[in-house]
Design a protein that fits this description.
The chain has one domain: Roll (FAS1 domain). The protein has eight helices and eight strands, in the order ααααβαααβαββββββ. The strands form two sheets. It has a four-stranded mixed sheet. The longest helix has 18 residues.
């Protein structure tokens, strides 16, 4: 049983490393498109017409909600955001997940709890640390980030809604 558990841990760490290896020849959008657990995020980016933004020169730090994060959003809220008449609201929500500048995990770990980052949407995100976890507003980083040619992409466990 001990060997099986150890093998499972090794395989899990290899899978984690494989999804977080630098991919500096691709943009943050292309990196996101290559992550199966970010398919909802990339679809929403496309719907919002933000493909060009995330493919731009940057640098950007993108806090991308996973598919399971989108599943936590109430269905009626997602339906409203995805309606053609709500495109500006969808853009606002997605832009709230993007910061100008590239913030590697080592830099995020050095930030004092309560540090602020300004999003391309114009609002601020608050960085906090709880134990070994780093939070951006109420969202927990679930990985150490993936480096891209125009920034860095982090997966987060919650869709953050910009304050009104």
């Amino acid at each position: 049983m001990g060997i099986v558990a150890m093998l499972a841990a090794v395989l899990a760490s290899l899978a984690f490393a494989a999804t977080n290896t630098p991919n500096e020849s691709n943009t943050v959008l292309e990196v996101a498109q290559g992550q199966s657990d970010l398919s909802d995020f990339t679809r929403h980016v496309s719907t919002a017409g933000l493909d060009q933004t995330l493919s731009g020169t940057g640098p950007f730090t993108v806090f991308a909600p996973t598919n399971s994060a989108f599943n936590k959003v109430p269905r009626n809220t997602m339906n409203k955001l995805m309606s053609p008449t709500s495109k500006p609201q969808l853009q606002s929500v997605l832009k709230y997940h993007v910061v100008r500048g590239s913030y590697p995990i080592s830099e995020l770990k050095k930030m004092r709890s309560g540090s602020k980052l300004t999003t391309i949407e114009g609002k601020t995100l608050t960085i906090t640390r709880r134990g070994n976890n780093i939070y951006v507003d109420s969202a927990r980083l679930v990985d150490n980030g993936i480096q891209a040619k125009n920034g860095i992409l982090y997966k987060i466990d919650t869709v953050m809604m910009p304050p009104r």
